[in-house]
Design brief:
2 strands, mainly alpha, 374 residues, 66% helix
Length: 374
């Protein structure tokens, strides 16, 4: 008798909890800003709710599509081609806050780099499945990944979006590591990347200032250090139970981007340690169930795809919360499934739909990712 396919309920519940938190906290963090700028206090929360509803509908459809259908050369090359064209087109769009990351369609902003992450993960999973037995033959196994992912990363850097580019490289690196590549290649790549990383960080004045501000934000408390100082104040004044919803102070034109990149600071201030811990626990559940799905996937493609999607969500959440807590320099990276943003919400829910489908096919005892497979 065929086994009835069941999705991972823990993964779905954690995702649903983050979406509910997003709708509530986006309203709390954006209402006064939206009223001041657009005379519409419900503007951002209405859009976020709409994107969440569309995203859940997409998730519901995708979770019933066999993930093995993505192992299709024509489909993946079409996806990579479309993403590449979108990343090129966005470079000619109107700059927003000094960057070109969005272009408008029908009054809504589209961020191609979000789709680029998912396209790169699918492409990498296909190549690793087919060539992992010769993973240490770099020209055979990793050259296609290097060319495609490197091209996407280069286009993302031109926007410029350093944080997304680095996070994409980190996700692909974890996938390649899981395929069994020799440690010496990873170490060599890291050493070769250091000079390029130094040049990228130092050539842009704002990146250099962010790095110096991270070292000592109080050196310029009303300038470059203002953002992180206000974030730390918000987190610190929240205490254990918080000040209550809508009662936060730092979002009142003190904390820049309170409903996007720094929404975790607003959560910490208004719901305290309890609310912040709940958000962290939701991402821990996603990491646990995602890695569990990767380990129990019935084939290597499913394993690498599940691993990549899980890392895409978890690493981005880790970086965002680390920025809010002053543990890493400021990056323009939103908190997945929580920060205001339609493209991010939609692509992340689509990716979780794929992950839920892989979980339906997971075996109880099969471990598909073998670090020593090479």
């Amino acid at each position: 008798m065929a086994r009835k396919l069941q999705s991972d309920k823990w993964l779905f519940l954690a995702t649903l909890a983050l979406i509910c938190i997003s709708v509530v906290m986006v309203y709390s963090a954006s209402a006064l800003v939206a009223l001041e700028r657009f005379q519409q206090p419900y503007l951002f929360v209405t859009r976020q709710t709409m994107w969440a509803a569309v995203g859940i509908a997409v998730l519901s459809i995708v979770m019933h599509i066999d993930y093995r259908s993505y192992r299709n050369d024509r489909m993946v090359w079409f996806l990579v081609g479309v993403v590449g064209l979108m990343l090129i087109a966005v470079l000619f769009s109107r700059p927003i806050n000094g960057t070109r990351r969005w272009f408008g369609i029908g009054g809504f902003g589209i961020q191609p780099s979000e789709l680029a992450k998912l396209a790169a993960i699918i492409f990498t999973a296909i190549i690793l499945e087919r060539r992992r037995q010769r993973i240490n033959e770099l020209g055979y196994s990793l050259l296609p990944i290097g060319l495609i992912v490197g091209g996407l990363v280069g286009l993302i850097l031109l926007q410029p979006d350093f944080g997304t580019a680095v996070s994409l490289l980190a996700v692909v690196s974890v996938m390649v590591f899981a395929a069994g590549i020799s440690y010496r290649y990873l170490l060599g790549a890291a050493l070769l990347a250091l000079p390029a990383l130094y040049v990228i960080l130092m050539q842009a004045d704002y990146r250099r200032r962010r790095l110096l501000t991270f070292m000592d934000p109080w050196a310029d408390p009303l300038g470059d250090g203002f953002q992180i100082i206000q974030s730390l104040i918000a987190v610190g004044t929240g205490g254990v139970f918080g000040k209550g919803l809508m009662s936060g102070v730092q979002k009142l034109f003190y904390l820049p981007e309170p409903f996007t990149d720094f929404i975790f600071a607003v959560i910490s201030e208004e719901t305290g340690l309890i609310g912040a811990t709940l958000v962290v626990l939701c991402f821990c559940v996603i990491a646990w169930r995602g890695l569990r799905t990767a380990m129990r996937a019935p084939d290597s493609f499913g394993a690498y795809l599940a691993l990549g999607i899980t890392m895409m969500l978890v690493l981005q959440a880790f970086v965002n919360m680390s920025v809010v807590l002053g543990l890493v320099p400021t990056k323009g990276i939103p908190l997945p499934l929580v920060s205001n943003g339609g493209s991010s919400m939609l692509i992340n829910l689509l990716a979780i739909g794929v992950l839920l489908n892989i979980s339906q096919h997971a075996h109880v005892e099969t471990v598909s990712v073998e670090p020593g497979a090479a």
